[in-house]
Amino acid sequence: MTSEPLDDLEQRRAELYAQLAGTGDFRPGSVNETWRRCGKPACACAQPGNPGHGPRYLWTRSAGGRTRTRQLAAAELDKARREVAAYKQFVAVSEQIVQVNEAICEARPASAAGPGVQGGPDADEQLGPLIAGLREQMSAEIARLAADAARSLGCGGRDGGRRDRDPRRDAEAGRLDAGAAAGR
Ligand SMILES: [Zn+2]
Hints:
It is built from four helices and three strands, in the order αβββααα.
């Protein structure tokens, strides 16, 4: 698997993601049919060969370490069975996605890695402008806050104060620029 070309792996991953997106409603657990004996000796269910009262349909799943059960109405039985099957499908596709991602991580050379490369080139293309936009907004906001702070400090100490503050504000602005440049 690790010898598979990176392009093929990425193509397979894209297909799996598409498959995952097409999963319908799903829920974990299982749907079971149960029959029970009421315990009355005179009841038909006490006779040998009688399956007991039923069927009752139960949806059972574990949640937070506990097993929870709910009886299903006959009308929702088919729906619940589909949803439980869809969950198994979801888990199977998810496992394949983990495997193909692992193979992609192994196949992708370290030199190809850049900032935000986790999602691969496709995700990067979409996220790139978004991240750049956010970074720009944040830089502008930080610059505005710095200017506000400098202004309010400057107001306090007119002459001497202003001359003391300005170099510090310049240094601050320089650091912000350097930080933004390094982040690119
Ligand atoms: Zn009975």
